[in-house]
Protein: Phosphate-binding protein
Organism: Streptomyces subrutilus
Amino acid sequence: MKLQRKNRLRASALGALVVSGALVLTACGSDDNTKDSGSASGKPSAAAAGDIKCDGAKGKLLASGSSAQKNAIELWVKNYMAACSGVEVNYKSSSSGEGIVAFNQGTVGFAGSDSALKPEQVEESKKICTGGQGIDLPMVGGPIALGFNVAGVDKLNLDAATVANIFNDKIKKWDDEAIKKLNPGVTLPSTPIQAFHRSDDSGTTENLTKYLKAAAPDAWPHEAAKKWAAPGGQSASGSASVAAQVKQVDGAIGYFELSFASSQSIKTVDLNTGAAAPVAATGENASKAIAAAKVSGTGSDLALKLDYTTKADGAYPLVLVTYEVVCDKGNKAETLPTVKSFLNYTSSDAGQKVLLENGYAPIPAEINAKVREAVAALS
């Protein structure tokens, strides 16, 4: 018994150390001016010290899906496994589409997705969720950053129409009059714009194009989709690769989750939304925009309809919400306790605080309260 206790203490200490190191790395790589929530102090995250309830969790839980929430899931898993001895949570970061396929094949306990289930996917889930169906639980929010690399330019303001015209190959140089008008007093070079987009089907692309379609419909004639449709520009596979290109190419601009910008010290665009001042891409500002979302799902399904055109002060509307897709009823008996225990932690105050510490956006309290109720009712 003493040896087991010693091993548990050692595992807990190691888990806290790994999480603390990850938080320090993220904070050190950040170039935004918002104050970090203490993660750079060397202290363990609030979640690591929180009361994680294991509640009968046991064995191995497999999950897969969205890469946009990869960094958040990894931190949650480290905290959770440090608290719940003998439990293993294995999340395969692939894509939303692959995650939902795996979920509807019954090979994972839950899936991560950047988009809510489509009606045909819900119907398919009923074969796996005995007596129930797949539901969407919003768990991770975050800003999609527009990272830029323009020599001599440290701060850049753009509006939706200008962003659309840049990525639609209409604005070709950084000293274009439309950009100059939004950045009075800033010396902009005549450097050609190198716009990078995703080559793979991407939930991040889908959310960017939803924003452009809603906020600048005249400048963005393409339908919102996971596959890039605009002409011109250069492509790269995955957010990490797009960020790497922006980092090394003068005149570049691209889009990716904020954590990729923070970890590589890439400067990000402030959006001119019509609010009193341009809005920076931060977790807090993304949360303000997500707070304007409406629940479009029914029953325990909490799919959200985001407001990409909000002009509220301090609200950054270019956001992404990822869902955990689970069975409301008919979960496998051997994994149900772990699914409920883990998602109870991720939706807790401590779990959501991890998001803000790492460039993501906590789900607004009113919506998150409904998520907790849905998790408690899983069967």
